[in-house]
Amino acid sequence: MTKLWGGRFTKQTDKLVEEFTASISFDKILANEDIEGSLAHVKMLSSCDIISKKDAQTIMDGLMAIQLKIQNDEVEFSVEHEDVHMNIEKLLIDEIGPVGGKLHTGRSRNDQVATDMHLYLRKQTKSMIELISEVQKAIIEQAKKNIHTIIPGYTHLQRAQPVSFAHHLLAYFWMLERDKERLQDSIKRINWSPLGAGALAGTTFPIDRQQTAELLGFTKVYPNSMDAVSDRDFIVEFLSHASLIMTHISRLAEELVIWSSQEFQFIELDDAFCTGSSIMPQKKNPDVPELLRAKTGRVYGNLIGLLTVLKGLPLAYNKDMQEDKEGMFDTVATLDGSLRLLAPMIETMTVNQDKMYAAVSQDFSNATDIADYLVTKGLPFRQAHEIIGKIVLFAINQKKYLLGISLEDYQQFSPLFEEDIYEILQPKNVVGTRNSEGGTGFNQVKIQLAYAEQLV
Ligand code: ARG
What we know:
This protein has helices spanning 15-21, 24-27, 31-47, 53-71, 84-96, 109-145, 165-190, 209-215, 225-230, 233-259, 287-310, 325-348, 353-361, 367-376, 381-398, 407-413, 421-424, 427-432, 442-455; strands spanning 150-155, 158-164, 192-193, 220-221, 267-268, 350-351. It is mainly α. It folds into three domains: 15-105, Fumarase C, Chain B, domain 1 (Orthogonal Bundle); 110-358, Up-down Bundle (Fumarase C, Chain A, domain 2), CATH 1.20.200.10; 367-424, Orthogonal Bundle (Ribonucleotide Reductase Protein R1, domain 1).
């Protein structure tokens, strides 16, 4: 089959080379963006009198007919035509005849592919922002039901201080909020238009790059044609933001796995989000959070993969850049799938408030509060810390918790202790009194919730 670029060649392309260099098997996903970019280009060519209005109309009609056929799965893309750009151009020429060959005037596949990627990633970035909002809404819903649910708060995965479960969940809300902000900010740069940069140096035709940029909803044109065709920063940025989102998702996933274990039993994931074992009938496995945790790996891999492809590439376009696609598509699919699962999984999980409360009633996570108690009675914190450390040791030896020690015993350690200590040690007071801004005190959590609700 003759190639669109076959003029200077005397031999057929080797079959293996054809398959090795072709990208149609994966870049066909860009077909819509490719046609959108071409429609803008051809409109501009005609308004700048580079091609006639009549030819432009024929080409636009042809492109739209092809778009419809692609939507209805009526076209066959071929490896002989290498990539989505040349496949569509070939389909156009088959559809409307040689006039279709005018479409590529003043354009190269290099600015064309970059344009497609900008359009694709803008759409996907917006969709990710919406999906993150859905997860945030699910977090808010669970948080609302659990303002007064008390759970051990950990540092070093050792019981530290009890917290409101809503507070713990909302920590993830803010991670995701920053993720959304980063994605939103990246749209500024995704919105630079490479179209009209040509192969690398611009074109001899009197094109209007501002016009195509505007038609495609871009806010700025790349000021340098060489940068325009060789920039893949916007993809690296997306992969990097996606990596951080997956980091956040995997941290939450890990907590869900731990919390749903027999040892913790803090939550139970809905049956619809778990799977069984082929041998052990009793098993209910948290496969979904486990996979969320694991899929983080491929997203990081895609980021490192692209950075490595770009590293040391001379200007301007190099075929290496074709390798920007599969990792990006895979990241989009992974992130999309992960976010779509996370929201309903959080929404449907059962929170075992009793188990959580039982946990905080059987630990020393109220120790800081008696230290603070002595401080309010005038003792320097460091001295109070020392005394409470001794009391904890005493309690451990007595196989008791702090609420189980008698006032007489407390007073052995310090005469400052009085009956009110038992009220202060109650988990609800330990949490409730942490009323500093952004703290876990119930009032603070309510303020935080109200703020979070305004953002989704
Ligand atoms: N399929 C190519 C890619 O994805 C399109 C650009 C090809 N340009 C070229 N000069 N060979 O990068």
